[in-house]
Fold this sequence. Notes:
This protein is α/β, with parallel strands linked by helices and 804 residues long. The chain is built from 32 helices and 21 strands.
Amino acid sequence: MALRATAEQESAREAFAAGQDLALVAGAGTGKTSTLVMMGSATRSRGLYVAFNKPIAEEAKGRFGRNVECRTSHSLAHRAVGRRFQDRLDASRHMPLKRTAQLLGLDRDLAVGKRRLRATTQARLVMEMVRRFCYSTDEQVAARHLGPVNGLDDQSAQYLAQVLLKRAQWAWEDICSPEGKLPFQHDHYLKMWALTRPRLPADFVLLDEAQDTNPVLEEIFLAQDAQRVCVGDPAQQIYEWRHAKDIMSSFPGQRLELTQSFRFGPAIAEVANRWLRASSSTMQLTGHAGGTSGLGRVEIPDAVLCRGNADALAEVLRFLEQGVPVALVGGGKPLLKIAEAAIDLQAGRRTAHPELFLFASWGEVQEYAEQDSAAAELKAIVELVDTYGPQQIIAAVQRMVDEDQARVVVSTVHKAKGREWGRVRIGDGFTPPADGPGPRGVQPAEARLIYVAVTRAREVLDTTGIQWAEAQIRDVSRASLTSTPEGVPLAALPLTGQLQYPRSPMSVFLNRHLSRTEQVVRSYLQQSRSFPPAVQPMDERRPDYAALGHTIDYRLRLSLGHGPGDAVAMGVRLLGSPLALEGAPAPEVRTALHTAGAQLLARLQAHLEGGLHLGEEELTRLCHVAGFYEAVYRNGVFSRRRNLLAQADARTTLNHLTAAVPAYVLEDIAEQTELAAQPFAPFQKLPSEQRVCGPVFTGSADLGGADADFIVGGLLVDCKATIRPHTIHRSAVQQLAGYLLLDYDNAYGIDRVGLYLSRQGALITWTVPEFLAALGARVPLPQLRTLLRNHLRQAKHSPPAEQR
């Protein structure tokens, strides 16, 4: 029987039939698979549907026509590469960790600070480094692939990463060898396949669940010459902590939406829309489900959805006390392992649990979870055990039933994604603690999680567990729609800040007048395919990429005969002023930092004027320190997170600060500086007036500021120190357009725009006419500049209707 298409589905099918690359944003229950099936049936060309997992792929096979092959990424990789390693897959499936340690040459404990890691623990961490590498787009195993290790501070974790790195690199070599002996996993052949830069055997590729795409699959998908369609819902991106990426927002294809939900009715759609707005999505759902669908209280629902495991266990225990058969999605095995590990630690015995193996007692676990602000998952484990006790957890797990025998299913939201039930209650775990400092704001990541939760219901949705949050977002005022969650007016944000908010004045203008960013992104991707891998730190576990970006920017400015810029000087002055600064150190420390900053600027100026010759290493050290002064000015706070200045005391000098610059920074900037030699050589020969660094535009005063990187000989250049050159967000294109338009009076004579990729040494440029034409400009540049000036000045006093 033929599927009857909605108007939105018909538009998507027509765009697909016309050969367009598409980013299909499909809200919850809007029939995305049906739409993809319609697309596949609209052509006789060979198609490939890439599913998130095997059950979805198997189900899709029964719905698509014969011209569309339904596979997972792993099945594609197995057919191309993995089958050659099938014997190893089978043979190493149950290899003991002790044997893995032996193969890796690990036969003794490793002392890391006050901790000791057994050989088997080291082996597990090595193999996890390889696994994380396999999920990435990196070409080599690096120190940053060591995951979080509870119980170690940053310095100890860095040491551990460096010690294990050579083992991990050797492990990958062994895995890639047909004669290798180490355990072989499915993710290994997926990465091996990705490194071959495969071309998929299809005329069009349909990628499902694109908002949670594994980076290694993202790279394969974006590199295809076939027609590409990615489908998903960015508002349902809840796996960022697993390094999943939303590729839809920056995909260079026509953006279409499916907003008619057939899962639920108008009342549930209204709740979903409130959470869509809170998650910064502009999509609006309409409910079209047949039958009864609405809001209400449910004592015995089909499913209860919770924030985390502790909340889920509380719900399970409540139903067990009532004698209601209850199941936990995913089963109780993870809870059982936590309880057993806690019993061992409470008895003073060590455990092999992957989250707890470094601790000698439960008290150590509690203390570490309390002190480490980044140990969110560990805090959840501690809360679970301390609230219920290991024996009660074990008893609860033993009393649970399988889902097919349960009257009620309890699940965390993460495990409920992709599923639906008739009657759903949102658990209490989203409610802020009663002893907290008052109502907390709802951050976009939390809003996306709640959006997923409320859209699992078909018939009845019970929102009792999120009433506090509903109250915060229900009556969204016009003022809040034109402000950040912190209350800063969108019109007061700088250019880069405004581009993060669809309702900001700059975003509204660009989306109205220069909306076809996908054309420029497509041009960029075509040129970037041939670029070499990005140079990046290999031995550093947590490279500070933001600080490295500032450092190379300053080094490039110095090569053009300019200092690091006014923002650095403003940061130095701010520290030396009596002005209040959030998080600032004591006055005597501020004085020391101000003195050091003034000396830094003086040394760089003397170098530029020729009175002092500084070597490459010292220039890099000075530039790296300078970036932290700029951060003080840009952020308006003295952040202590990864801030080199936070190490200062009243006796700190410039020499102390430059000596504290990590070695990896020197190595990384040296590589980037060498790559810049050739592309920047022509710019260095230009007259000084044609080498402008940090240009500020006439229109910069009409928003919260806008200063570009370089304008050299009429070429506006934005420098990007990205480690992933094959991806570019539309905001990068909009940023270039914003700079171009803010030069109201054409003071800089910009005739070309471009992106310089400092980790590839590559420059991509467009003439202004071709850049504006690709963006869909309908009027000449001077008129666009006038329109923008009027728009921004009006927005300061009366936000346009689109922003309300």
